[in-house]
Amino acid sequence: FSTGDDRTASVAGDLIVYARQGTAYPNPLVASAAREECLAFLPVEGGTLLRTLCPHDLIIPADTFVHTWFEPSLSPDGTRIAFTWQRGPNVGPLGFADIFLMVAAVDRPADTLQTRVLIHYAEDGYYPRYASLASRITWLSADRLRFLATFERIIKVKDGGAERVTDTLFEPLALMEMDVASGATHVVPGGDSVVAYVNAPDGTVWVVREADPAAVLRLDPATGARSSVGRFSSPVVDLIAVAGFLVAADSPAYDPGTGLPRPVVRGGAVLEILDPTTGVATPMPALPGPIRHLAAAGGRRFVAEAEPSLRPFGWPADLWLLEVP
Predict the structure, then answer these.
(1) Which of 12, 125, 163, 173 could in theory staple to 74 by disulfide, Cβ–Cβ 3.0 to 4.6 A?
(2) What is the distance between the terminal CA atoms of the chain, rounded to a whole angstrom?
(3) Are strands 245-254 and 280-284 parallel, antiparallel or unpaired?
């Protein structure tokens, strides 16, 4: 537990790495909050932080941008870290300057001479969304990443004469891969419209697609062929695999704030377990607040990113260590 905002955790061995709220660039809209995000390292069992790497400490020479480092994922040997690096202006939170998918030495995340790639994916249609952000980054091998190409939608609220910005919406558009050495990216065959995924042990991928977000499909990344696995009871917000089962945060919980121009999903209100061999889903005990992000933690355990309750414009999130019954 911390009073700050802890987000987008992944687990490698006995280590959780996640985005932790820093102290630089205070947010005038939220008391005692800051807009910087750092990379934090914590034992899976909890306890004392092992280390925190913050942009304002490591970027030399310093600049006037607000830097956020998030969606971290450690390489199989633990020596490198992949993450998303976003730079934004310090004059307000209504946009960002640029955003990159990074791969760097784990102790030198600010080293821009390593892999630094712009993500660009446009969906089909007359009014396409454009994805520039890599979320849910996983390592397929020492030289290949898989991730969700994600569109960042910034919500501006006008209500009662006051203006403020809520949490942004992250809308995955496609499943992509990147060659770490060259930085070359491509859409996984059959990976269009994927909003959640988890790599299966046999080399296929369990995916959820936007058109039917409660259905789980098995995707062959070589051919693009998809087959049905089963269904959760409601739309999936995030998906992982734990002890041979699929675990989803589903049943979207919507921000109750007034003045929102569109629905804002704070996270999933329900945790469910699906057996991929039978396709049967069963509920498990959830948390009091919405759950946005999950990470398998070995054995039957997993980490859940959750806000303490549902309230207008959200709370800072905490990380919880849970176990599949």
Answers:
(1) 12
(2) 23
(3) unpaired
**For strand 15-21 and strand 37-43, is the pairing parallel, antiparallel, or unpaired?**
antiparallel
3-class state of residue 144 by DSSP: strand
**pLDDT tens track for 175-212:** 999 999 999 999 999 999 999 999 999 999 999 999 99
Q: Give the model confidence (pLDDT) of 259-275 as tens digits.
A: 777 888 999 999 999 99
Q: At 131, is the pLDDT very low, low, confident or very high (cuts 50, 70, 90)? A: very high
Of 86, 85, 92, 106, which Cα lies nearest the Cα of 17?
106
Question: In 3D, which of 140, 232, 223 has the Cα closest to residue 195?
Answer: 232
The answer to whether 56 touches 33, Cβ cutoff 8 Å, is no
CB 22 within 8 A of CB 37: yes
Q: Coil, helix or strand for 6?
A: strand
Q: Are strands 205-209 and 194-199 parallel, antiparallel or unpaired?
A: antiparallel
User: What is the model's pTM?
Assistant: 0.93
